[in-house]
UniProtKB/TrEMBL annotation:
Beta-galactosidase domain span: 380-568
Keyword flag Hydrolase: yes
Reactions catalysed according to its record: Hydrolysis of terminal non-reducing beta-D-galactose residues in beta-D-galactosides
Species of provenance: Rhizomicrobium palustre
Protein name in UniProt: beta-galactosidase
């Protein structure tokens, strides 16, 4: 039998994944041609999704994410490793706990997932500094060039991460199959080329032997392998050419989708020269290293994730990914497959805490409908395996109806054909019907022989012809293949199409087989001349047929509606209908042990490749009833136990004022003098003023405080400040302990203002002679990314310049002696790392940490604490005892629905010391914050600490907060360790 069915099990066998502790794994050879990668000589379609472990500070849940990816059709995971996350200071790195990437690779190996590793040094990914470490901001050398100082820094990082990646390469028995250098480097000067070459040489020196690629910012032909030799492309030190694209279109700021886009042809079917042409790299496989699986959302929007999940939803996946498959993009990475949380100070200025992305697997690791569609597409890819990966563009096939276009590819090795059918243009959503003529080795056919095929709404169909699977032969089908499985009782194949559409399927036999319709309705006719058995039916429920004899193994055909197709799970060893997730199947001595999730008491229907007489679901034995379809129907699964949540708002809260730095007499003797004249900020103070930006003093993340002393004068009537604070950043100012006001950077655009200028009037009394103290707090909502490779990440944060001004005329040359305080790197909290905290007094004193620091604090109802401008802290403790299973919780502010509150305040949310995000009540849109188990102690004590910042107006009091259940399924990945120390 040809190895056409590259099931998940086969993928496992190919890469021979194993536990890290196991003896050395066999190494694998990765080769490629212009059709696909080959692993140990076998063609493989790499169906990958992006997952960011650094956006999930609970390593036990990394396995949950990978299991869910695998169950929803992915065979690979692509991962950025932002330098920043792992570097505590120059020369100081950490790869433990939430930074334990060895563990991630091991999990991927154990779960049978290939890995695409993307360590940068630049990432982007809507991260502060695009993933560059804080300390790099102070480097004069231009980043992402061949300046030796920058190269030395980059080498320092690569020397740390490469050995970890190297020992997990497929070529060393692991599962990492490709390595990305840089990301979207759009400058292509000789200096940039030398930089790229330097990275590649370094990576090779570090023992990386898997293929290298970069991620071109669109299909420009930048950094194509040198062997490509295509005009107008930019050669680079790469083995494969890869690029990204987000053609699905965004949602509008008001949360509406806007008009649908048509899917571009980015490969074999594109027109034109090298830039938009058939290939910028003719000798390497089609490779999209990021293809939109959603989009990010920004401060002040109307909350786009639901809209994005629908717009970049099931229909989009079929049309756009279908177009990609037709175009030969056989290495395909969906960005993002799994949403994440930009906790702490991870988020770049554009985005707020939730990086849900409208992804198939949402931020809380719940499966959206679009993930079920991916399961079906991934099932098709696994079931067609080597055939699909070996296809080429074939002769044009005409559609009977010009409103439908057809892509036609064929595999010259095994003769199989793929027809991808969709609207023309693919943005159309009408209901159109068509037929076409196709010649295969089986003969010439009008497909379908009876009636027509429909494409209805935003949809595309991937149809097979002359396709061998298991031991069966499909002449063609107008229903789509979801999966196929060999069992002791014969073969099983699952096909699908939308409800009430007509379907036709032709299978080839040596002689007339016996056809039994087990359920639903279907007509069959056998043509003895050709050996064709033709089946005609209308999709409704599940049509079940049993076909026996005719020279082949018996076949159970399941022809489902698309919606019912979504209820099947398959991993290459079992086919299961029902349940909310299938995580694992193990057959041993007649016992089939299934692990998975269920949200209700329901039965399962199960087929398996190995015979079994006992079946367990998460260890519970189920009773089995045999069906005529070769499956068993199980007894009902136990329903999940209800989740009981404490009413935290009604609990005991204690409070503490949090801005002592504002007081005139505050002791700042230990603070650093801010008197530098140097600095790298792209925004400079006027000549003569000191450099105030926080980076210059080693304070890279979070809030920063300043205190400036000056001698009063009548000319000092106003204070003008320029400050850098990222998206939705803000500053507050006091004079001699009196609050002058605050300023917030405007939001509402997806490229927010990141620094601003503001004037405050100084009171009469401050114009008198004598010494005065200005106190300023800047909420630094992170640094810019370096998308354009122009050092934008060096734009200063904190105060940039301050001048005292008269009413008219030049600014008074009143000198101000400044001091600064932030959280100095390297931070002491090595568990949570450098991005967890800034320099608030409470953060430095540990008000955010679990423990009993608050016992002496006053008890108060959180919405009735005495209002004062600045920051105050609220703390409360609560116990949880969650049922074991896949239980996800969130923290909700207010009613959870209002986009922007009338109250103006912001909150840093600390749970057991972890900074799980920032709520800005009047900016929005995020109201619910995902709190993963692991950060939460699911079985014991938890501490919540809220750092609330406002102007002190009693109107701007905090809204009620409560816990909410985002998901409750029985099953789960197993116990999630809670390792937070009690202090
Ligand atoms: C790409 C970039 C990613 C991410 C994405 C948008 O251009 O490579 O890092 O920023 O856009 O989410």
């Amino acid at each position: 039998m040809k190895a056409q069915f590259l099931s998940a099990a086969a993928v496992l066998a190919l890469v021979a994944f194993g536990a890290q502790a196991a003896p050395a794994q066999p190494s694998h050879k990765i080769t490629w041609d212009n059709r696909s990668l080959m692993i140990d000589g076998k063609r493989v379609a790499i169906w990958s999704g992006e997952f960011h472990p650094f956006r999930l500070p609970s390593p036990d849940l990394w396995r949950d994410a990978l299991q869910k990816m695998k169950a929803t059709g992915y065979n690979a995971v692509s991962v950025y490793f932002p330098w920043d996350f792992y570097s505590f200071a120059q020369g100081k790195y950490d790869f433990t706990g939430v930074r334990d990437i060895d563990r991630l690779f091991t999990i991927a190996e154990e779960e049978g997932m290939y890995v695409i590793a993307r360590p940068g040094p630049y990432a982007n990914a809507e991260l502060t500094r695009g993933g560059f470490p804080g300390w790099l901001v102070n480097q004069k050398a231009k980043a992402r060039t061949d300046d030796p100082a920058y190269l030395a820094a980059a080498d320092e990082w690569l020397s740390q991460i490469d050995p970890i990646i190297a020992r997990h390469q497929a070529t060393k028995g692991g599962s990492v199959i490709a390595y990305q250098i840089e990301n979207e480097l759009l400058e292509t000067t000789p200096s940039h080329s030398r930089y790229m070459q330097h990275l590649a040489d370094k990576v090779r020196d570090d023992g990386i032997t898997i293929p290298l690629f970069s991620n071109d910012i669109g299909r420009n032909g930048y950094w194509v392998p040198k062997s490509s030799k295509v005009e107008k492309t930019v050669p680079g030190p790469t083995d494969l050419y890869a690029w990204d694209s987000y053609p699905g279109g965004p949602c509008m700021a008001d949360g509406t989708p806007g008009g649908l886009h048509a899917a571009p042809d980015f490969g074999w079917y594109s027109q034109g020269g090298a830039k938009g042409g058939s290939s910028a790299s003719p000798n390497t496989p089609g490779f999209t290293s990021e293809f939109g699986g959603g989009w990010f959302d920004f401060w002040g929007s109307d909350g786009l994730y639901t809209c994005l999940a629908n717009r970049i939803g099931s229909g989009y996946e079929r049309v756009f990914y279908g177009t990609n498959i037709a175009n030969g993009l056989i290495i395909h990475n969906v960005y993002m497959a799994v949403g994440g949380t930009s906790w702490g100070w991870l988020p770049g200025p554009i985005v707020f805490t939730s990086y849900d992305y409208g992804a198939g697997i949402d931020e809380s690791l719940g499966l959206r409908d679009k993930a079920q569609t991916m399961k079906m597409i991934g099932g098709f890819i696994a079931a067609t395996g080597e055939s699909l990966a070996g296809m080429q563009k074939s002769d044009p096939v005409a559609s009977s109806n010009p409103t439908i276009k057809l892509y036609h590819n064929a595999n010259p090795d095994d003769g199989s054909h793929l027809i991808v059918a969709m609207h023309n243009p693919s943005s159309a959503v009408t209901k159109d019907k068509f037929s076409f003529s196709l010649k295969t080795r089986d003969g010439a056919y009008r497909i379908p022989a009876e009636g027509e095929i429909a494409v209805n709404g935003q949809d595309a169909k991937m149809l097979l012809a002359d396709f061998g699977f298991l031991g069966q032969h499909l002449v063609y089908a107008t229903s789509q293949l979801q999966t196929a499985l060999k069992t002791a009782d014969g073969d099983v194949a699952l096909f699908y199409a939308p409800e009430s559409e007509m379907g036709e399927m032709v299978l080839r036999y040596a002689s007339a087989p016996k056809v039994t319709v087990l359920a639903g309705q279907a007509q069959s006719q056998f043509d003895a001349k050709t050996g064709d058995l033709r089946l005609n039916y209308t999709h409704s429920g599940i049509i079940r047929l049993r076909i026996e004899g005719g020279g082949r193994a018996p076949l159970t055909l399941l022809i489902a509606t698309t919606e019912i197709g979504k209820t099947f799970w398959h991993d290459g060893t079992v086919l299961v209908r029902g349940g909310a997730l299938l995580r694992k199947a193990k057959a041993d001595g007649g016992v089939l042990s299934l692990e998975g999730d269920n949200t209700a008491s329901e039965t399962l229907e199960v087929w398996a490749s190995k015979p079994f007489s006992k079946l367990t679901w998460n260890g519970d034995a189920l009773t089995l009833t045999k069906t005529a379809s070769g499956s068993v129907e199980t007894s009902s699964l136990s329903a999940p136990e209800p989740v009981k949540l404490p009413d935290i708002w009604a609990g005991t809260w204690r409070f503490q004022a949090g801005s002592p730095e504002a007081a005139r007499d505050f002791d700042d003797s230990a603070w650093r003098k801010a008197d530098s004249k140097g600095g790298t900020s792209t925004v400079k103070p006027p000549l003569g003023q000191p450099t105030l930006t926080a980076d210059e003093y080693g304070f890279y993340n979070g809030d920063v405080w300043y205190r400036g002393r000056y001698e009063g004068t009548d000319a000092a009537r106003h204070v003008d400040l320029t400050y850098g604070a990222g998206g939705a950043g803000m500053m507050q100012i006091w004079l001699d302990g009196k609050f002058l006001g605050q300023h917030e950077l405007p939001t509402g655009a997806d490229r927010p203002q990141t620094y601003g200028t503001v004037r405050f009037d100084l009171p009469e009394w401050a114009r008198k002679q004598g010494s005065h103290v200005i106190s300023v707090m800047v909420r630094n909502n992170s640094h810019n990314w370096d998308l354009q490779a122009d050092d934008a990440h060096k734009e200063g944060r904190g105060l940039i310049s301050v001048a005292l001004a008269a009413d008219t005329g030049p600014r008074a040359a009143v000198p101000i002696a400044w001091k600064i305080k932030g959280l100095a790197a390297p931070v002491a909290d090595t568990m949570r790392g450098p991005l967890n905290n800034g320099g608030l007094d409470g953060e430095i004193k540990g008000f955010h940490l679990p423990g009993d620091i608050d016992t002496s604090w006053k008890v108060a109802k959180p919405d009735s604490v005495p209002a004062a401008p600045g920051t105050y802290w609220l703390r409360s403790h609560f116990d949880l005892d969650l049922p074991n299973g896949d239980v996800a919780l969130g923290l909700v502010f207010g009613d959870g629905k209002t986009l922007r509150s009338a109250q103006k305040y912001r909150v840093l949310i600390f749970v057991n010391g972890w900074n799980m995000g920032q709520y800005i009540a009047h900016v929005g849109p995020q109201r619910t914050f995902v709190l993963p188990q692991g950060v939460l102690n699911a079985h014991g004590a938890n501490t919540i600490a809220l750092a609330v910042t406002s102007d002190g107006d009693p109107k701007n009091k905090i809204e009620p907060v409560h816990l909410t259940v985002l998901r409750n399924a029985r099953g789960g990945v197993g116990p999630i360790s809670f390792s937070t120390p009690s202090k």
